[in-house]
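Task 17 of the worksheet. Students: predict the tertiary structure of the chain below and write it out as structure tokens. Keep your answer in the requested format; marks are given for formatting as well as content.
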Amino acid sequence: MVLPDMYDETVNESQNVSAVTVHDAGPTLASPVHLQSKVLSSSTIWLEWKDPSVGDEPDTRYYNVHYRPLIISTDRPVTSAARRTLSVVVRAGHVVFYDLTPGTRYEFKVRTVKDAVASAFSQTIVNKTFETGTYIYSSTAIVSMDT
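Model answer:
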């Protein structure tokens, strides 16, 4: 893979893993703030944040969201393999996570990336999916639809 000069590609041969490092190539970006999460069901969480560095002009920024499970529903620690950090990239200031494990606590953090410059990660936020069952979220109540 050919990358612009501001990137380094690192390959760990023993694990066959490739990683790209972003170098500080200019002004710093502010970390996202005001992270909020809403549990929508036993397998869905909505995450949103504010970006204090957004201007009026459209640009090429995106957000790198890291998340991982912390505790399974039986309150036993998750194995290290199951606890690996996952990552998604989005352009909006929010994302919905589907297919999460019921009754599990998840940790979320976000950083802004623009022109190959990444902000520091935001503070971490933690929320727990509902126990098994189907739930409907509304602004006034959460209704269980268990059968």
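Marker's comment: Residues 1-18, 138-147 have pLDDT under 50 and may be disordered. The chain is about 0% helix and 45% strand.
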